[in-house]
Design brief:
There is one protein chain. This protein is α+β, with helices and mostly antiparallel strands. Helix content is 18%, strand content 32%. The chain contains six helices and 23 strands. A hairpin with a 4-residue loop joins strand 18 and strand 19. The N and C termini lie far apart (66 Å).
Length: 438
């Protein structure tokens, strides 16, 4: 290589060592640039890997503390998707504690490794290893588990006191939507939800199990009749109106059918659709919930069929206090469910023909696993349908619903004077309203 290079400023030639040094510097800069480009490409490809955990980024990992080894200077982080990443800390690592939900770094307080506990929320900042299994942490930011629990309980109470159900009308001029919920006895309760420019609007993406943190920004114009909606805010004294601070909504679908195949290994079940008799494949994710109606539920709910039973009455022939099992999955001392209307007794046990919200009742049922399902079971489920109508991701599944479907069919026949197929979305829409809130 000729190290004689023209001087770009004076036009003179330089000889010997100065030229060598100058070229070495140029080569070094060039190689450094190549390394930077290669690393950028690698990180971009890493981020685009199918199934890549969104909680593991090039320079940080976030999740919950699953294990602490102070002697080895290691904190094991478990992400929401279940990935495990070891954060290696040393005497140069800085530690901060943030209040739950706070993003203003000025609110952070200094803390230490000894004050971190299993279950705390955590962000570890540093350059994540290529195998995405470790990170040399330059900074650790934590949120106390107990503080998270307190904030979550407060948030859930606020959502429970709000309004939820199916959007029955939209008033674009007034920026209002009417949300209707249905009780077991078939009674409807409507709440007018008003949205201001300050209302936070979020929606659930299709073909997913709704999680609050995965909800995406939405617009008022996106809300349509038939959507399921949860609203948090201030209610009027009579409960007929709500001024929304935040809403969550999605285009949910209620489906039902008879189980024809169960693939527990792949978390899938196949059903024959109740109405069209077409085959549907139902995928269960770790967040999906399966429940079963208890035996004798038909007698418990019998008063809701309108056969001369008034609010609080049991099945025909039952005396006071007889033939009225407590609400499924609860004991007699359970508290009255949030949002329950007439028919919820003072002790909280739901009365058969009362105005208890369908969502409250079904969400109190005990959970089961896919292994508890049987061929021939009749189920109903809630989903956020995607592009393939024959494939559904289950949010919540209820098995053993034959008595409930019989009640709905009898009610519709009484109203129409002739047998009709049960409208699942009309009767059960909003029944899984608690899903997706914090």
């Amino acid at each position: 290589m000729n190290f004689l290079q023209p001087d770009r400023i004076s036009g003179r030639k330089q000889e010997g060592k100065p030229g060598v040094i100058q070229n070495v510097k140029k080569i070094s800069v060039f190689l450094t640039s190549c390394v930077v480009v290669i690393l950028s490409i690698f990180q971009a490809q890493q981020a685009q890997q199918p199934g890549a955990d969104p909680a593991i980024k090039a320079t940080q990992v976030f999740g919950k503390v699953s294990e602490i080894n102070s002697a080895a200077g290691q904190i094991t982080i478990k992400t929401a998707a279940g990935s495990l990443v070891v954060a290696n800390v040393n005497d140069k690592t800085t530690y901060q504690r943030m209040p739950p939900g706070e993003t203003d770094r000025s609110k952070a307080e200094l803390t230490s490794l000894t004050e971190i506990t299993v279950g705390d929320g955590i962000i570890a900042r540093g350059f994540v290893a290529a195998d995405r299994k470790s990170v040399p942490a330059q900074q650790i930011i934590v949120v106390s588990q107990s503080e998270i629990a307190k904030k979550t309980a407060t948030e859930r109470m606020a959502w429970a006191r709000g309004a939820r159900g199916i959007v029955s009308s939209v008033n674009a001029a007034a920026r209002e939507v009417t949300v209707t919920s249905r009780s077991l006895a078939g009674m409807s309760q409507a709440t007018i939800v008003g949205l201001s420019e300050k209302t936070k609007i979020k929606r659930y993406p299709p073909d997913s199990v709704p999680r609050y943190e995965n909800a995406t920004p939405g617009k008022f114009e996106d809300i349509k009749v038939g959507d399921q909606l949860n609203a948090k805010g201030e209610k009027s004294a009579d409960g007929a109106r709500l001024t929304a601070e935040e809403i969550l909504f999605g285009t949910f679908k209620i489906a039902g059918g008879t189980v024809t195949a169960i693939d527990a290994a792949n978390s899938q079940i196949k059903i024959a659709d109740l109405q069209k008799k077409t085959p549907l494949t139902i995928t269960l994710k770790p967040e999906s919930v399966i429940r079963r109606l208890p035996e004798g539920f038909g007698m418990f709910a019998g008063g809701g069929m309108g056969q001369g039973a008034g609010p609080g009455a049991g099945p025909r022939g039952a005396g006071p206090g007889q033939g009225q099992p407590p609400a499924p999955g609860n004991n007699a001392s359970a508290q009255r469910p949030q949002g329950a209307g007439q028919g919820a007794g003072p002790g909280g046990g739901m009365r058969p023909a009362g105005g208890a919200n369908m969502a409250d009742l079904l969400e109190r049922l005990p959970t089961i696993s896919i292994n508890d399902l049987k061929l021939g079971d009749t189920i109903i489920l809630s989903s956020l349908p995607g592009s393939d109508p024959t494939q559904l991701t289950a949010i919540s599944v209820v098995s053993g619903v034959e008595p409930l479907l019989a009640i709905m069919a009898a009610r519709q026949q009484a109203g129409a004077g002739r047998p009709q197929a049960v409208d699942l979305n009309s009767n059960f829409g909003g029944m899984f309203g608690g899903i997706g809130v914090p």
